[in-house]
Amino acid sequence: MYVEFDRDTCTGIFNCVHEWEKFVEDRDAGKATLVASDEFEPDHYRRDVPEGEEFDAKMAARVCPVDAITIYDEEGEQLVP
């Protein structure tokens, strides 16, 4: 399972930060940051979801009010928005 984060879409509500520790607040930018992720397009980040953290990652995606977080399974099928 992996997560993709569209930082450009992020509005800095920081709901994700409270659901999964891999998201942290960047108050200077007014956006969340996905820790230990790789930028694959400008302002788009991706990282694997560690085993045992799947629920937290899915919750972070579900609480994002602007759908900036998407969860995919190993085959690339979208699981959460």
List its traits.
81 residues, alpha+beta, five-stranded antiparallel β-sheet, two-stranded antiparallel ribbon, 2 helices, 36% strand
Summarize the topology:
Blueprint: E1 2-6, H1 15-19, E2 23-26, E3 31-34, E4 38-41, E5 44-48, H2 54-63, E6 69-72, E7 78-80
Antiparallel strand pairs: 1-5, 1-6, 2-3, 4-5, 6-7
Fold and architecture overview:
The protein is of the alpha+beta class. The protein has one domain: Alpha-Beta Plaits (2-Layer Sandwich). Helix content is 19%, strand content 36%. The protein contains 2 helices and 7 strands; from the N terminus they run βαββββαββ. It has helices spanning 15-19, 54-63; strands at residues 2-6, 23-26, 31-34, 38-41, 44-48, 69-72, 78-80. The strands form 2 sheets. A 5-stranded antiparallel sheet has the order 4-5-1-6-7, covered by helices on one side. A hairpin with a 5-residue loop joins strand 6 (69-72) and strand 7 (78-80). The longest helix has 10 residues, at 54-63. The radius of gyration is 11 Å and the shape is globular. InterPro entries: Fe-S_cluster_ET (IPR051269). One of its GO terms (molecular function) is iron-sulfur cluster binding. It comes from Saliphagus infecundisoli. This is Ferredoxin.
Gap between N and C termini? 14 Å
What is the count of DSSP helices, taking H or I runs of 4+ residues?
Answer: 2
The major beta sheet can be summarized as:
5 strands, antiparallel
SSE order, as H and E? Answer: EHEEEEHEE
Strand proportion, as a percent range, falls in 35-45%
At CATH level 2, the architecture is: 2-Layer Sandwich
Mean pLDDT: 97
Q: What is the topology, as strand order, of the major beta sheet?
A: 4-5-1-6-7
InterPro entries: Fe-S_cluster_ET
GO molecular function: iron-sulfur cluster binding; metal ion binding
Protein name: Ferredoxin
Keywords: Electron transport, Iron, Iron-sulfur, Metal-binding, Transport
